[in-house]
Each structure stands twice: as C-alpha cells, then as structure tokens.
Write a structure and sequence with these properties.
single chain; alpha+beta; Creatine Amidinohydrolase, Chain A, domain 1; Creatine Amidinohydrolase; 6-stranded mixed beta sheet; 15 helices; protease
C-alpha cells in the first residue's frame, strides 16, 4: 500500500473532480454540452494599507484545479474532457518584490490540467468553445464569482445557480488522494496536540498552549489553521467555541492550578482540514470529577464510532450518544429518573447541546450536510449532518458533556425538569467546564477508518503529562 506521502506527491486529481461535477450538472444542461468556468480568489488589499489580506483559496476552484494561486481561473469543456488553467500575466513590478511567477510549463508539470494559458486568453477560449458547439453549449459559473470582464458570448445559456451545489454534492465523497491529504493534516495535528499537552504542564496562560499548537503545525507543513484554535482551561471549556485563549491556568480564587484544558485545534494541509479535540490534565493527572466525565464521553465516542458504515442514519448515531450520556450521568447521580424518561424529556441536551459531528474536507464544517436548524426538536436542531452517510465521506465524531451555567440553569429553574437534575451533586462538576473528544472518521462500505492518531486513552495522556511535568 502506498504511503500518504507517496500518494500526495502525485498530482491532485482535478480532472476526475471535474468529471464528477459535470455528471452532477447533466440534468441542468438539458442534453446540451456543459462548460464550467471558475475563478480563484482575488488578491485583496487590507483597507487603508498597502499589504494584501491573508489569502484563502476558493474551494470550488481548488477542487477542479488543485491550484493555490490567486487571480487565476479555469475552463472545463465536459464534452471534450479538456481542462484549461489560466494564470495571471507576469507583472514586472511584482517580480521585483516577489520573484518570478509560475510558468505555464511548470504549471503543466504541477497540475492535472490539459493546457495552461494566460488570463487575457479566457474570453477567446470561451468564445471558441461556444462556436465549436454551434451555440448550443451551457456555461456554468458561480454567481458573484465572475469578473466583470468575463463574457459568455455564443452560449445558449449561462447558469449561475447550479454549479455551486453540484460541487458541494461532489465534495461529500472523497477519493483516495483527498483521504491522504486529510490523513496528513491529522498526523500533523496529532503532533500539535502532543506538543500542547506537554506545554500545558508548565504553561501559565492559555495562549502559551496555543502557541505550541501553531508552531508545531507550521513546522510540519500546515502553515494555516483549519479554524482559530480553542484552548479553554477549567470552566472556560463549558463554552463550546471559546474564543479568547488568554486566561491564566491558575485559578484566581483558589490560587491553585486549574484541573484540565480542552483543546480543539486542527492544521490545514493543502486546503484539507483536520479537526481534533482533546482534554488534558494541567497537573499530570485528571482530577476525579474530570476523569469521571472523560470516561463517559470516551464511551459515547467509542460506541458511536462502532456504528459507522455506509448507509448508517446519522440521527440514530447522535441519539445513541445521548443514551450513553444519560446512563453515565445517572451513575454519577447528576441525573435522576428513568433512562427513557430522561431521553424523551431531552434532559441530556442540557449537558450535550450540540450535534455529534459534521462532514470534514476542504472546510472544517464541510459541504453537503443538509442541516435543519429550524428543527423544533432540541436534540437534533444543531446537527450539521442529516440523513445517511455515504461510503467515502469523512465525518467528525465529537461527543461532549459540558457544565455551562447559562445552558443548565433554565433546566434547574423549570418546575417540570428540575426534578431530573440533582443540583447538590452537580455542584461538584462546575470546575470541569467541558469534556469533548473528537476524531475524524472515513466512512467505508463495511465500517470506518479512524484518521486521527492523537492520544486519547487516559493512561497514555497521563503518562505523557507526567513525563512533561518532571
């Protein structure tokens, strides 16, 4: 079997992606030839500044080109299976500052395209294709992603609505090259989490831990982050997407070190994202309450991962996570009542308020999930994926249990629901903040592949923490 590095040393499969998208567009072309036009992200300047804004390639363009260069475009003629990449003309002034740009010859060697031309040739190429098809071809582009100077003269129709959805649907099922990129992003991110674990034993502030994550990712080839890292010590972990990363690791009231840190971070490798969450102790070993919650969440994740295979109903997997949470919280005495009644009353949503996971790919919350945020059922409202999982999809499995006063207090104040929560027992757990454990899973016909290698067993985590502490 080829190694990850051997796979990604080859060309990104842009033409295979173009063919898949063209198949999705067939019904919109009504039997006529289809031509796809896409533009890269433009170079944009910072307001009131002469520096460019941080660059993020448009995902539709990358999916059909594998090209990370700004100010480029592509044309795919589905009938002839020809993919043309257009690069910006050389700007002599820019060469002084940034060096020579990629040449057409170099681009042909690098990308899975049939020809490379200069950007000024786009309109002539489109016109030539339209003429060759006798004026019957349909041009597909994305609204608000077509430059003013681009013309679709000679086409029977210009469709600006179907292409975006066709690409988003095609992106759900990954090929082997994409899985290799996701695995590479995961391998780098696993190293970043280990570095964060080690740093957390001596860190005096959350930002020190964050710096270890970012530095490790950059050092191993993931210069960009999939999203802003979440580094949340103690009760900060109760905020699902805690944004600050600036709190001290010492509790101001007790003058003692907080018990644990929740880290949700992922490196981005060639536009493909990792998304991993771990909880680590801040003093070698987990406090008792954190350990108890961690075991429940780990069980939630293990049982949900075991359910994964082609065709599994995601809502069923999510519901099962709640049932495991209910059983665990009952054993601790935090919840009271029957398992079925607690499930039907949605009491576990107070502690597990988010969806079990989401698709993963070129975006952290990748396309094709079809969420329904208008769902009246609080247990399913925030699911980012609905329906059955196809083989080839990649999904995160990230159950969690949180002690967020803002979310739980309405349950305690409710005359109907407060009987299900023992507030006296609950009092011991506020300091835990939150525990979330997140892996990235490749769904296969008969099961799954776990792409995530970051340590999550309690014994391994505590061993690494203790080694770092001494």
């Amino acid at each position: 079997m080829a190694t990850v590095d051997a796979i990604i040393a080859g060309k990104y499969p842009a033409k295979a992606h173009a063919r898949r998208v063209a198949q999705q567009l067939a019904t919109h072309a009504h039997g006529n030839p289809a031509v796809i036009y896409l533009e890269a992200q433009k170079t944009r300047m910072i307001e009131d500044n002469d520096e460019p804004m941080p660059f993020r390639q448009r995902r539709p363009f990358f999916y059909l080109s594998g090209c990370l260069l700004p100010d480029s475009s592509l044309v795919y003629n589905a009938s002839t299976d020809e993919l043309t990449l257009f690069l910006p003309a050389t700007d002599p002034d820019d060469v002084i500052w940034s060096g020579l740009p990629l040449s057409a010859t170099e681009a042909l060697e690098l990308y899975d395209v049939d020809r490379v031309q200069a950007m000024p040739d786009v309109n002539a190429t489109l016109s030539s294709i339209a003429t060759a098809h006798g004026g019957k071809a349909v041009a597909f582009a994305i609204a608000d992603q077509v430059s003013d100077e681009i013309k679709f003269n000679g086409f029977a129709e210009t469709n600006l609505t179907a292409l975006k959805g066709a690409i988003e649907t095609a992106r759900v099922v990954k090929d082997g090259y994409e899985i290799a990129l996701l695995r590479k992003a995961n391998d780098i991110t696993a190293q970043a989490h280990i570095a964060a674990l080690r740093k957390s034993q001596s860190a005096t502030n959350e930002r020190e831990i964050e710096s270890a994550i970012i530095a490790t990712c950059i050092a191993h080839g993931a210069r960009e982050q999939s999203y802003h890292p979440i580094v949340a010590c103690g009760e900060n972990g109760a905020t699902l997407h805690y944004p600050k990363n600036n709190a001290d690791t010492i509790d101001a009231a007790t003058k003692k070190r907080k018990g644990n840190v929740l880290i949700d971070a992922g490196g981005e490798y060639r536009t493909y994202c990792a998304d991993i969450t771990r909880v680590f102790p801040l003093e070698g070993r987990f406090p008792t309450e954190t350990r108890q919650i961690y075991k429940i969440v780990l069980q939630m994740q293990a049982e949900c991962i075991a359910m994964l295979k082609e065709g599994v109903q995601w809502e069923d997997v999510h519901a099962h996570a709640h049932r495991v949470a209910i059983e665990g919280l009952l054993e601790l005495g935090i919840l009271r009542g029957s398992k079925e009644e607690l499930f039907e009353k949605r009491v576990s949503v107070a502690f597990f308020p988010h969806g079990l996971g989401h698709y993963l790919g070129m975006d952290t919350h990748d396309t094709g999930g079809n969420p329904n945020y208008e769902d009246k059922d609080s247990m399913f409202r925030y699911l980012r994926v609905r329906g059955r999982l196809p083989a080839g999809s990649v999904v995160t499995v990230e159950p969690g249990i949180y002690f967020c006063r803002f979310i739980i207090q309405p349950y305690l104040d409710s005359a109907e629901l407060n009987k299900y929560i023992d507030s006296g027992v609950l009092e011991k757990y506020w300091g835990v903040g939150g525990v979330r454990i997140e892996d990235n899973l490749h769904v296969t016909r008969d099961g799954y592949e776990n792409l995530t290698t970051a340590p999550k067993a309690i014994e391994e985590i505590e061993s690494l923490a203790c080694q770092a502490a001494y």
